[in-house]
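In line with agreed milestones, the collection of sequences with tokenised folds has grown. One record among many is set out beneath this paragraph:
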Amino acid sequence: MPYFAMNRFRVLRGHEDTFLNHWKNRDSHLDTVPGFVRFQLLQGKQTEEHTLFISHTEWESEQSFIDWTQSEAFRKAHANAGKGTRDIYAGPPQLELFKVVL
């Protein structure tokens, strides 16, 4: 069954381009991971304080996602997470995990 992992990022207004450039230029190593299906970066609503972005990954199974989080590819992809960009967020990212039920 497919499995979905989403991280919600609240990016302070005026820093959207910095956030997008960070994602465009990072090597996620996802294309080397068994069970990875697809990645999308979604932009949501804006408030006076922040713009919502969601990183959305689809996996063949929950186990595929778990294996990714314990892999060398995961460590490489997250080695510089937040480096030079911590001050553009309105709080930490929020991870949400979903399994298909219907």
Remarks:
- The mean pLDDT is 91.
- The longest strand covers residues 36-46.
